[in-house]
Amino acid sequence: MPDQPITTLPLVFNEPRGRKKPPRHLADLDEAGRKDLLVEMGLPGFRAKQLSTHYFGRLVHDPAEMTDLPAGQRDDLVSALLPDLMNPIREQSADRGKTVKTLWRLFDGSLVESVLMRYKDRATICISSQAGCGMACPFCATGQGGLQRNMSTAEIVHQVVVGARAMANGDVAGGPGRLSNVVFMGMGEPLANYKATVNAVRRLTDPAPAGLGLSARHVTVSTVGLVPRIKQLADEGIPVTLALSLHAPDDELRNELVPINTRFSVEETVSAAHEYFQKTGRRVSIEYAMMRDINDQAWRADRLAEVLSDHGRGMGWVHINPIPLNDIPGSQFTRSREEDMDEFVRRLNAAGIATTMRDTRGSDIDAACGQLAAAE
């Protein structure tokens, strides 16, 4: 494989000076901040709670439905705290309408994707945290396009609110229901947009009407291994699930597949993940994209088991999710053979590590994150 650029990978991406920021939205602010903003604008501060109730509680965004707001102030209130953030420009569905992928255009033309997936016992939305990604993983569709910018807290949250509204309104096959799970596994590296990601998690888990009222245990934040940020997240006091995108158990291969590994080795990364478990009590998920003849050899399953077993007695701290790779047209990286994936899983389970092959959704559409944006 060709060498990947590794010297400019950012731990945290800072926006260039002079770049126009997304519109300020109530999801960017806590309850006190929303009230203070209205007061500064000469509007009644108590209206902030009413706006929050519409947005997070009733999942309403249309001002015409906010009949408890005085008609003379409604437009000003909505403009102050509920501006338009993003518009859907393309949608694809699969699995008989139970998987819906949306391409969003942000205020500045940036493109991001989200995927709503309805299962028998839950509904999960996979959301983006950045427009593009700067981690440069060569097998990832998003990584090939580079990083455009960080998303704001509200832009991240709005994907979830729209998904919750779609479920509540019965817009997803299966009738009305409730959105239960959120995974930060869309476009971008969430921990490289750390502040907005953590604030978004707080908005999603704050009780309504301050936030959406989801359980923190049903929120998963994925990372390729930004070790200092993993340790920082462990101290936030929010018991989200950490998902570590490992993809290789040895530094030689992982340096090529996940270039940030040249800064934080497999050992350092896994140690940080184990520390996260120790501090939060939350079992860590190891994500492992299965790539044919690259990282799917049986000996690598054995090596992965050794790496994870080196951290404390017992393997209750970790769960492995091998993921059949979503093929990208023209890429040298392709999905592993079924027999190789089966043997990989068998060896990990035999080593006493809970391992479950990830259920893939949307295989008949542009399944890999970034493909819709790239096509557009």
Summary, kept brief:
This is Probable dual-specificity RNA methyltransferase RlmN. The protein has 376 residues and is of the alpha/beta class.
Q: With helices defined by DSSP (H or I, 4 residues minimum), what is the helix count?
A: 12
* Total strands: 11
Radius of gyration: 21 Å
Query: Which range does the strand content fall in?
Result: 15-25%
- Overall average residue pLDDT: 92
The CATH superfamily of the largest domain is identified as Aldolase class I
Could you list the spans in which at least 5 consecutive residues all have pLDDT below 50? 1-8
Instruction: Indicate the CATH architecture of the largest domain.
Output: Alpha-Beta Barrel
Distance between the termini: 28 Å
Structural class designation: alpha/beta
**How helical, in percent, are the residues?**
25-40%
Query: Shape from CA axes?
Result: globular
Which strand order do you get reading across the main beta sheet? 1-2-3-4-7-8-9-10-11
What is the total number of structural domains? 2
Element pattern in H and E: HHHEEEEEHEHEHEHEHHEHEHH
The name of the CATH topology of the largest domain is: TIM Barrel
CATH class of the largest domain: Alpha Beta
Major sheet size, sense and barrel closure:
9 strands, mixed
Keywords: 4Fe-4S, Cytoplasm, Disulfide bond, Iron, Iron-sulfur, Metal-binding, Methyltransferase, rRNA processing, S-adenosyl-L-methionine, Transferase, tRNA processing
Cofactor: [4Fe-4S] cluster
Subcellular location: Cytoplasm
GO cellular component, one term: cytoplasm
